[in-house]
Amino acid sequence: MKGTKVASRFAKSLLELAIEQKSEDKVLKDMELVDELCEESKDFNNLLKNPIINASKKIAITDTIFKGKIEKISDNFINLIIKHNRELYLEEIAESYILQYKEYKGIIDVEVISAIKLDKKTMDSVMEKVKAKYSGTFNIKETVNKDVIGGFILRVGHEQIDMSIARKINDYKHILLQ
Hints:
Blueprint lengths: L1 H19 L3 H17 L1 H8 L5 H12 L5 H12 L6 H16 L1 E8 L5 H14 L3 E8 L7 E5 L2 E4 L2 H13 L1
Parallel strand pairs: 1-2
Antiparallel strand pairs: 1-3, 3-4
C-alpha cells in the first residue's frame, strides 16, 4: 500500500508539472515507454532494485538508456526519483501517471473480449450502450479469447459485464452441484 501512495503522489506531481509546461501528452508517451521497459526488462528492474549500485551510477545508466527517447522533463523526473531512493517505485509511478492522465483527459478504457472478432454492427451496438452510460473519450481494445466460447465480456474502466457462454455454463454447473 505504501508504494501505491508514493507512486500516486509522484505521478500527480509529474502530471501537474507536465500540464503547467503543456507537455502532458509527451510525458504520457515517456511514461508508457518506462512502464513497458519495466515490464519487459528483468535487467532494468534488477538495476533499479539493486542497493549496491549507487544513485549516480543508476542515473548515468538510465540517462544512457533513455537518451534521445524521452523529454527533458521526464528525464529530470526519473533522475529526481533515483536521487531520493524511490526508483523501486518507478514502474508504479509510470502506471499511476498513465491512469491519472487518462482521468484528467476523460479517457475511458473499454475492452471487449469475445470468442471471435465481433462484426462492426455488433461492436457499434455494444459501444452505443457504453456511450449511454459513460461520457468521455473511449480507448477501445478488442481481444479474442476462445475460452469465452460465445457472447462477450465487457470491461469499462474498473467495471466488468460478463455475458459469455462460459460464465453461463459455469453458473449452471454450480447450480447443478448444489
